[in-house]
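User: I've been going back and forth on whether these two constructs are worth ordering. Before I decide, could you fold them both?

Assistant: Sure. I'll take them in the order you sent them. The first construct and its structure tokens:
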Amino acid sequence: MTVTVVVCAYTERRWPDIVTAVESVAAQTIPVDQLLLVIDHNPALAARAAGIAGVTVLANENRRGLSGARNTALAHAVGDIVVFLDDDASAASPDWLELLLAPYDNPLVAAVGGAATPLWPIERPVTLPAASDRGELDWVVGCTYTGQPVQLAEVRNLMGCNMSFRRTVFEAVGGFTEDMGRVGTVPVGCEETELCIRLRQHDPSALIVFEPRALVRHRVSSDRLSWSYLRRRSWGEGISKAAVSRLVGAGDALSTERAYTTRIIPAAFFRELLRLHVAGAFALVVSVLFAAAGYARGKLVRADRELGPVSVGEWDRSVEDAPRFPYPARVLVRDGLTVLGEVSVAAGAEPDGLWDLPATEDERFATPSVTVVVPSAGRPELAARCVRSVLATEYPRLEVIVVDNRPEVRALQELAASDDRVRYVPEPVRGLSNARNRGAAEASGEIIAFTDDDAVVDPLWLDRLVAEFFDPAVDCVTGLVLPYALETPAQQWFEQWGGFGKGFRRTRFDAHGASGSDDARTGPLYPFAAGLFGSGNSMAWRAMSYRELGGCDPLLGAGSATKSGEDLELFIRLLRNSGVLVYTPHAVVRHEHRRGLDELIGQMRGYGTGLLPLFAVYVGRRPVELLAVARRMPGGIRHFLAGDSARNRGRGADFPPELSKAELHGVIAGPFALLRGLLTGPRRRLGLPEPQATAAVRAAEETAPTPLKLLRGGK
């Protein structure tokens, strides 16, 4: 019986745990025939892991997430038994694997799982009460919990951190469902539950057993000890169970949960009350309520699983044959430097269309100095990916400023130290506008380009943005923003809502209108309509123009009370001050949209919240513009609400009404949010902050002794 052990990893923050897990596998009493380390869409981590001896490192070939990574491993596994171990789990003793494999002597055993005990960063938290080593809610942190067997027994499903299957299982029933499973830190899962149920439905005689002596130690990070994580994890479990019930039926999906909620949880609740542990009792109630609410939400939103994945890809017709994709795809078609457009392609088919369009874009050779500003607020891994993509443009006169809006994030400091072209700049005043303005104040480039930390820029992005500045009248250039992935329904719904893309026609905007565009961009709302000019996650400015305008308004944008609207207000301000903006589809950025419906609902609410405040702030700072804005208000209301407006007509029949409601609720809340921002905002002045170097010099001059002080004997 040959054995393949699989460890899946996605973040460099777990590097010590990854090494420990691999070393624990190598120390087992039973030799492993194959050890696979699958890296989930993190090239830097894959490069670092390539140096581990005795390990085959694979990049996830499938959809981002744990299920896709595991399926990549299955495609390369050679063992009769495939064992899955989490990257933050290590074997407790050298006989872990021996104990896990022993039940396979029975030919009816199809899968065997082991137990997991938590390694706490501190002591057990009050959010996870327990009467012994096991707690009723330890499943929240991926560990064995009270209610699971204490000796070898048959079970419905296994725990993902410590489980094994005969490889023939996957040949018979397929792999892990990639519509389910954890993606990064998103606390959802149940893909192993769905697989185990699918296995038993396919072969009722198959045995799935639990061997608690096959124990691993599962490291629990400190962020999983909070009340907020308990709520999110329980909500995610409910969402996941709803998805499982749709796939395999509610009877099988909830058989274990019924006994758990009717016997285990009530007993634990009364035990905690008798011990006067009110927090523990409350944690049990919170977990059950949020799991039930998540399940109800998951059952109501049936469309959440009716949209299949859509691949995204690119094809340069000048240098390569047309690609094919395993899923239906959206393919960006280029001809050298020119972006021709985007086509929809059926699974397995070749792109068709756009072949008659000429490639007219000429290469430009002048290279003004460019500073790229990447604000980040607690997402260092995404920021690192974004910065790597900017550096990969190989623009010759490049400076990258990473603005840390949650100082001090050590990973961002290390990122800046890794390349001489990258600088780390802290900005403690929260808000995207403040972060962008800080970056612009520190920038040394003639051109200042902005993107967000959840974006990946195209290798030609800077070249195509800079090319537009050869027209000396141009103040600002925006580019085409396309989805990084369309793997989930929420990502596809965001594109139906409108996404960030502004089409494939180059357009020049000024105070009088738009040239090179169609009538939709030059209507009566111009220039006060949203969705005309581009997005703040792909824009470049002449440094002088940005500074003269005062930058983004700190009353607007993510991180402020109003949540959005800062880029549109800045574009309007530019055009109403006789500036010129050019939108080019040839400068491409890929943006990672929200993956889940709840995240997307929050985003839509935020966009709605910023709508009225952006006009109020604009008029409040320029009262002379009141008439111009008021005259367009009736048309703007119709544009926002009418189902046949250019804004709304692209939404499909499956577009969730919750999204439209969330956006409308945000609009209603907008004025109150602005008032809160005015009353509580730490910085309301329009303008760039003083550069740190200048501030340091000024402070030194203020404290240094002057000649007059020296004459008087002063200090």
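The second construct, handled the same way:
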Amino acid sequence: MEEPRVKNAIISVSDKLGLADFAKGLAAAGVRLYSTGGTRRHLESSGIPVTDISAYTGFPEMMDGRLKTLHPKVHGGILNRRDNPKDIEALEKYGIETFELIVVNLYPFEQTVARADVTDAEAIENIDIGGPTMIRAAAKNHQFCAVVTSPDQYAPVLEQIQKTGCTTLSMRRSLAQAAFSKTAAYDLAISHYFAERSADIEFPQKLTTSIDLKTVLRYGENPHQKSALYIDPKSKTASAVNARVLNGKALSYNNLLDLDNALSLVRSFQEPAAAVLKHNNPCGAALGQTPVEAIRKAMEGDPLSAFGSILGFNRAVDKDSAEYLSTPGLFVEAIIAPEFTPEAVEILTTKPKWKANVRLLECGSLAVPPAPWQIRPLEGGALLQEADNLPDPEEDWTVVTDTRPTEEQMRDLRFAWHVVRFVKSNAIVISKDQMILGAGAGQMSRVDSVKIAVEKSGDRITGSVLASDAFFPFPDGLQTAAEAGVTAFIQPGGSRNDAVVIEACNKFGLPMVFTGRRHFKH
């Protein structure tokens, strides 16, 4: 069967970017244009011949524009099957034109509801009805009708029509897929709007999300795995996903995981902070008076593991920080920060041996908080939970030992407790002077995590503090750390052996704080 020649097109859009040139090209190719309201006026003002839909259907727009295209002469022209004699008979009987091209984009619902002052009435009036109906009809009947839902589709569609007077089935099928994705995302945004305003709904009956493909990655966690990066267009939070890449090779799947965790770690500190990530665990993290002091301390926490690491900053990477990172022997895979000074970019992209490859990601202000919910896929389903990204109320903390922490110890305990939530469970962080000395991560036994952290800390451990993401089930881990030189502890508490653990701490004359809150990270 021959491809249907594009004789008639309906154009009804909110976003008029590039529309006049597209419509002129269609008209020059012999396509008769039909339109509504503001779109018709826009085309007429550009000198493009257009037929008003109301003149064609014989019915005026009504109900403040709510009713424009919902008419058999519109949808019959879209949905008819050219190879079905009864459909052709109906067209002739009722004087229905065939439409081979539908150009529609929707009322700006998401932009409208994103405004802080939006009212329910405004939101509801920006729920498009006729537009999605035409889009779905054309996408369903893509064997005979092409549906254009975005200005970036104008050029390839016009090129085909200008060359042959038709569109190919392959293109129409691709446009149909994009169209159904568009209407699905649109309906999802509306559903989310109502769900957010329904106080009686804690968890939705259907967990749905709409995120857009940003790029196909070289591979996934391993070279034999395909992967791609998707982005939530509604998210305003500074992140690795929407950061501006200033330099370097393409980001990998594992790079993005590390960058995300690095930024999460540093973003809630008020002081200048830096984190060093390796295999999605912080092997270094520190606070400083300046960014360079923070990154120097962070890199010195575990220099061996820091080789080939991912760095996160909560301040601009400046000249001094860049000069330090260019020290011979240091090798960095990627850096994410709110911004980079011009001097820092110049240094990092010209001085170190890895200058051409290092990825520099500028994520912008960290003022907007991250999303309050996390979705984690499972085989056959998903988990939804509140994100663990809020600071713990210190007024709930309790000193449970005879000895109380000194002011200096308390400062380090706060730092270690903040960092330990970003280490995989069982998680142990040993720190001093607001920097990581050693971390034990991902062990099946908590005492093994303690031993690893102690070994990483080395001779520096004397006078340090230790944070544990969950309770000590037995005093053995605490004893190992105390005998190595740890002088204060912070942990959630809650074990049936708490009394035994507290007794062990008192035996050493060391303070311990219970926070009452666990921070597992699986």
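Notes on the second construct follow. The chain is about 35% helix and 20% strand. The chain has a mean pLDDT of 90.
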